[in-house]
Backbone:
């Protein structure tokens, strides 16, 4: 049984077909890379998987369960975590509070109007542990607005990891990072245990090809090629549509 | 220091009728407190949830009119209060279900329309609301046998309700649910992806906001012993919103300061200046230009700068200001 599978997934924005009958099956524990030129439909595919967009046709399954019509908010509870290409965090809050919001999302406590959030020591400690995992515990009480871009990237990943997702979707986690920051984030992503299935969109081939076990090439909303790194890189179709040769 | 200031402020408010001469200013203080409760309610949406409502006078009016109608039908104050607040929460639920179909400008426009519907009913459904003449009630409630007939006793009763309101706001703001509400203001898309039910969070926040608007509406009814369409007009909603914006959205103290400012200008300045609306408008323009976050955050920032200047000299103050603004 695949951890994540999509079959015949199609999405149109008016006359523009953004994904066209996408088929994808990612096995449990796999590291899958999705590449393709700009406008290929990669982020739209993530938005369909997380439920931010509703597909016109097709089926999405998570460990065999059909989640196509499950609301986006429920998918996080079912084990789908994601990061965004454009950093989407809470700039007025501290790093610790950002991660606490992520942890809180899956707890009934989130509805409580009667207790003080900062006195929930188990939650505060859990947030600190997640920040330690991504190497940011020393900045836990710093407002997000006062951190660097690379640190915010790591907070994005920390928030996703905080929810112990079964399937983690990383949307260009290395975008805009310096060489050192890329190395740090790669080490962080590589260190994620195998019980988390990872699907990553990335343009930085040097980093991403080393990370991925299988690669899917998306072009004009279709998966045109799928295979190992060697197979995909050597395939003339990939070179034609992605590398421009 | 902060706690000391809070205790001192509460002591001043609690003893106000004892050292303020004449009933005029005690009544002004009662008005400030009841409008502060209203502004605190509006602030739940405008400040913490990022949803600007221009229809909350409708909810304020639902409580006042329901209370007036039931009271004039001969029921006791306990029944009146419960029924009026229940009606307000029910109206808030209807408002929320309709208004939350939109965000931003869409939300504003729907709340304007809903507020205007309530105003239309108050103004035109004469058999129900007595139209422009409004509804008068006779007598204020007597909680635990204590008469609220005098300005002093009414002030203290309003002060107790005000304390309850601000305490409930403080608990709400610091709670996990309060954090969720602020999260939906800052990043609704991310909140959904994290697993939060953004619509439901906003809906519950709307009910909470409506509840306190209703409480303020009831206090308004008891204070004036009268309610008319003027209380539910669009200008009343705009005034409440201006209280929040002038004082500082998303702060506990801001709506209280904003309410004090508006009530004082309306009641005191109007005694000396015929065109007091001009004064009110000019004050808002000055606040928006010099303290765009509102009076409370603006004064706090100014105090920090002054403190830095006193300790380290003007150069450090400039640096501190740059750090605060992130430039």
Residues:
């Amino acid at each position: 049984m695949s951890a994540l599978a999509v079959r015949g997934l199609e999405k149109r924005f008016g006359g523009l077909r953004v994904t066209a009958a996408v088929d994808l099956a990612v096995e449990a524990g796999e590291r899958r890379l999705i590449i393709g030129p700009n406008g290929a439909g990669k982020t739209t595919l993530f938005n369909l998987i997380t439920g931010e967009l509703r597909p016109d046709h097709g089926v999405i399954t998570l460990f065999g369960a059909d989640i196509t019509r499950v609301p986006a908010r429920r998918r996080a509870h079912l084990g789908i975590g994601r990061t965004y290409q454009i950093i989407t965090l809470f700039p007025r809050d501290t790093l610790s509070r950002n991660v606490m919001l992520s942890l809180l999302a899956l707890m009934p406590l989130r509805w409580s109007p009667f207790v003080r959030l900062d006195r929930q020591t188990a939650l505060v400690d859990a947030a600190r542990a997640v920040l330690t995992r991504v190497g940011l515990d020393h900045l836990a009480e710093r407002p997000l607005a006062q951190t660097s871009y690379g640190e915010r990237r790591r907070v994005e990943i920390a928030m996703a990891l905080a929810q112990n997702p079964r399937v983690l979707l990383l949307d260009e986690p290395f975008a805009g990072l310096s060489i050192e920051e890329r190395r740090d984030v790669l080490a962080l992503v590589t260190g994620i245990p195998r019980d988390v299935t990872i699907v990553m969109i990335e343009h930085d081939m040097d980093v991403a090809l080393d990370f991925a076990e299988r690669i899917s090439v998306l072009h004009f909303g279709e998966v045109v090629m799928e295979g190992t790194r060697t197979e995909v890189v050597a395939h003339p179709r990939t070179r034609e549509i992605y590398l421009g040769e | 220091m902060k706690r000391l200031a809070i205790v001192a402020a509460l002591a001043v408010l609690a003893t106000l009728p004892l050292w303020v001469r004449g009933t005029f200013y005690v009544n002004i203080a009662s008005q400030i407190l009841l409008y502060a409760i209203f502004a605190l309610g509006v602030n739940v949406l405008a400040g913490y949830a990022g949803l600007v409502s221009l229809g909350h006078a409708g909810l304020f009016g639902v409580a006042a009119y329901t209370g007036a109608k039931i009271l004039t039908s001969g029921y006791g104050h306990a029944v009146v209060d419960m029924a009026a607040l229940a009606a307000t929460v029910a109206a808030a639920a209807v408002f929320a279900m309709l208004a939350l179909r939109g965000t931003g400008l869409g939300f504003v426009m729907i709340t304007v329309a809903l507020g205007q519907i309530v105003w239309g009913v108050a103004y035109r459904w004469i058999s129900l609301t007595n139209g422009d003449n409004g509804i008068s009630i006779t007598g204020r409630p007597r909680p635990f046998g204590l008469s609220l007939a005098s300005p002093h006793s009414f002030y203290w009763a309003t002060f107790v309700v005000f304390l309850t309101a601000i305490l409930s706001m403080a608990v709400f703001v610091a709670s996990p649910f309060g954090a969720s509400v602020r999260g939906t203001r800052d990043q609704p898309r991310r909140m959904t992806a994290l697993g939060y039910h953004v619509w439901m969070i906003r809906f519950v926040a709307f009910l909470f906001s409506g509840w306190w608007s209703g409480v303020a509406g009831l206090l308004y009814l008891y204070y004036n012993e009268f309610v008319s369409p003027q209380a539910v007009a669009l200008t009343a909603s705009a005034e409440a919103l201006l209280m929040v914006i002038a004082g500082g959205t998303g702060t506990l103290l801001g709506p209280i300061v904003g309410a004090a400012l508006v009530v004082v200008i309306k009641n005191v300045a109007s005694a000396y200046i015929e065109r007091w609306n001009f004064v009110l408008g000019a004050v808002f323009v000055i606040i928006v230009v010099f303290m765009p976050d509102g009076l409370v955050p603006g004064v706090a920032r100014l105090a920090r700068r002054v403190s830095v200047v006193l300790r380290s000299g003007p150069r450090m103050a400039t640096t501190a200001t740059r750090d605060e603004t992130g430039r």
Notes: The CA atoms of residues 146 and 226 of chain B lie 21 Å apart.
